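hi!! sorry for the late reply, been swamped w classes. u asked for the two structures so here they r. pasted raw, havent cleaned anything up. first the sequence of the first protein and right below it the tokens
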Amino acid sequence: MVIKHMIDETLWAAYSSSCFDFKSEMSAGDFSIITAWNPASQQLPESVNCVNNKRLLKMISNYEWASVRVGDTQFKWIEESFAVAVDLETSLRIAREFGQNAIYYVRQGQLFLYACIDVRVDNLGALSKRIYKKLE
């Protein structure tokens, strides 16, 4: 049986090449990176994205979390996101509630990209190689 991936290859490649700018350190060993910006990868006005992220922040406020910007390698495109110390299944459930196609999950320093709308997962290597800007 062939498993069909619902996220097109160009979009998956863009997700796979993202870099991260953490506003503070995460002390948790394993955590997810989730956003409420641009559900289903459909660009929304920044004001709508900010409202959505405020709703997401209310949902994750009982967990350890940190702000993180996710962007392309030059950070010409970014999405405000959150690193959240929560298990993978909870992360996927939360992301699905906000219409997201995928999340990142960090396990023992390794960065994984998990689809929310099918079963695809890729190991993207060490998170440390994807940091856009060192902590200030």
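now the second protein. again sequence first, tokens right under
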Amino acid sequence: MSDNVKITVNDNGPYRVKGDVELVDAEGNAFETKKMISLCRCGHSSNKPFCDGSHRQIGFESEPRAE
């Protein structure tokens, strides 16, 4: 099994995280995660830090590219 974790910045959407990761809050409490999670970038999710698709309703736009 690979230890690699891949984070993809989706155009106009969430960060997609694939792999075994531990996601903790500011107090060190762990969120329950799966092998693939989507993290909110728009700030409007009602299930933060996870994406709930709210970016579609608010018209969130962001398409960053690596240089």
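hope this helps!! also noticed smth abt the second:
The helical segments are 54-58.
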